[in-house]
Each structure stands twice: as structure tokens, then as C-alpha cells.
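Subgroup meeting minutes
Present: P.N., E.W., G.H.
Scribe: E.W.

1. P.N. recapped why we're keeping a running log of single-chain structure predictions: easier to compare across weeks, and new members can see raw inputs and outputs side by side.
2. G.H. added today's entry (374 aa).
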Amino acid sequence: MKKFLALLLTLTMVLTLCVFTATAEAVDPDTIEDTMTSADGTYELAFVTDVGQLKDKSFNQGTWNGVKSYAAANNMSYKYYQPANGDQATDDDRYDAMKAAADAGAKVIVAAGFMQGTALTKAAIEFSDVKFVFIDGWTLTDAAGAALTNVAPIAFQEEQCGYFAGYAVVKEGYTKLGFSGGGGGNNPACCRYGYGFVQGANAAAAEMGTEVEMNYSWLYGASFSASPELQTMANGWYENGTEVIFACGGSMFASITAAAAENDAFVVGVDSDQSFDSETVITSALKGVGEAASWAIGKFYANEWDEIGGVGANLGAKDGATGIPTATWMLKNYTVEEYEAQFAAVKDGTLVIDADYEANLTQEYSNLKLNIIE
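Output recorded in log:
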């Protein structure tokens, strides 16, 4: 019950999600079974995972929570599909998972992650009567260049929540930071998270008249999986003075929190509030993947799919889709009031966070030394 109340408070204070329409009273998604059996063998709603585990306590799990919560609230059958070959899955493996979902009667298939693009294009053309929600996606087109209107792409302004987290931990008093990202540096969402984290840390340091140093690496994160190599790297960072590492990449979280626990150090979680999963989590950079999935599914059943099909949505603070969880953070020096003022400035456009990591990540920063480790 304590966990559920904290979750509700977090969602109320941070992820207002004013663009989303609630479909039912909030239910703790952990109480909803991941696997259900349909009487007729068909499943109306489907989820195709990104690389990594379904229960990664982050991106996959957060998105899946949105799918199964909508299904449970509306008495619908649901099923998840994990592409074959795990973190070595190919486009064919991803397509096969989507085909299996469509063949099993799915009316809406939610696909998570930027790697789904090629397979999703093929599946959407073949199964034109099925609706697809592309989380962390973009507008897909057919061979003639026409937008696929049965695909609703949803992207997020991750640079905002990365900024909020970086600013907060430096305001708290930490000056030795780390960023460990997933996707090998090729995942735009993780890149935006990292660049935002750098900007927020530098801005807070400039305001405080202090200097911050940050290790920044994509090593050992290509598959978004936990590994001994990643834990060893994080442990080395902590042993050499790093105080907080932003663990930005699904199941990588387990390796970094293990290293943090060994060193009495801290972690910033990603995508969902990960404080429930490790006492080392000082705060998390949140984006509303589950809420976005539920919202998009609801658009189909409200006969409003035309509003989102083939149209790219890019959600941020103005939509209540980015933030950090004030109800569960471990911050004592940085106040909720300070955060709410900053959030309001981003929401109304007074404070704009740069998203162009390709052009600007390696710039010179006024109060931050960035150590890019390759």
C-alpha cells in the first residue's frame, strides 16, 4: 500500500499528463498479471518488447504497465511478445513478433523502442487493419513516401528530464557525476537524456559558483543489459570519487546499482521511478511511456485514431510527460518548490533545453568538465 500511495502521489505531482485522458481509476500495475489466457485464443491488445527483459524495471516494463493496465481496466485480453534471440534480435525477429500478435487477433500493437522502425514499417503495411503504437518512434512511410496512418509514433523530450535530474543532484551538493548510456550511443532517446543531464548539471554548477566533473560513456551498454563488465566500470568510477551515476538503459540499472551499493554511492534511475527497486536511487528521470501507451490505445477505442495515426507526437513538460518524482526522491537540499518553479519554466517555454546532442554535446561548458570515455 505504501508503494501504491507513493506512486499515485508521484504521478499527481510530476506526471500530470494533461494531454492524456484517464480511462479508469488508477490500479497498481504490479497487481495485474503479466500473462493471461484468452478463452478463444485471441488477444486484443499486444506489446512487442524492445531489446532486454520485459521486467527491466524501466522502459519495457513501464510501457507494458500502460498496455496491461488499459486492458485490465477495460476487460480486454492482452499478451506480450518478446522477439527471438534476446539482445541479438534482428529486424526479422521483431517482425515475426508483430506478425504473431496480428495473427493472434490484436487490434492494437504497442511496439517499444527505436529499433522497431524497420520491422514495424513492414508489419504496418502488411497488416493495414491493425493499429500500431510506436513508442520512442517517428512517422513511418510506405515505398511511395506516404505516411502510414495506422502507426501512431510517440517521442519524448528526454533532454528535459535529463536536465531536471542533473540540475537537482548538483543542487543537492554532488560534484562528481557519471552517465552510463544504453544503445551504444545510437539510441536518440538515451542521447537526449545524457545531453540534458550534462546541461542541467552545468547550469546548477554555474548558479552555485562551483565546478562539476562528469564521466560519460556508452561502453557495455549496447544491449541495454546488465553485465559484469558494466558493473566493474561503474565500481571503478565510484572508487575514484564519482558520487552519482545516471543509469540510462533498461537492465543496465542492475549492474550500476550493485556497484553503487558496494560503495555507498547513488544512482539516477530512468524512464520510471526506480526508487522502489534500489535504495541507491536518489531520483529518476521520468517520461510517461506507460501513460502514453494507454492514451494512444484509448484514442483507437474512442474513434479518435485519426488524431494520432501518421502524426508524430513529441511529448514534454508542456504535456506533463517529463519530470522527476518529488514524492520519492532522496534530495534534502534541493526543494520541491525550486523544482516546481523550474518545471513551470520549461513547461511555458521560458527555459528551453537544447536537444541537439550531435552538434553540441562536446562543446566547452562553463562549469563542467566532461570526460567522454570510449
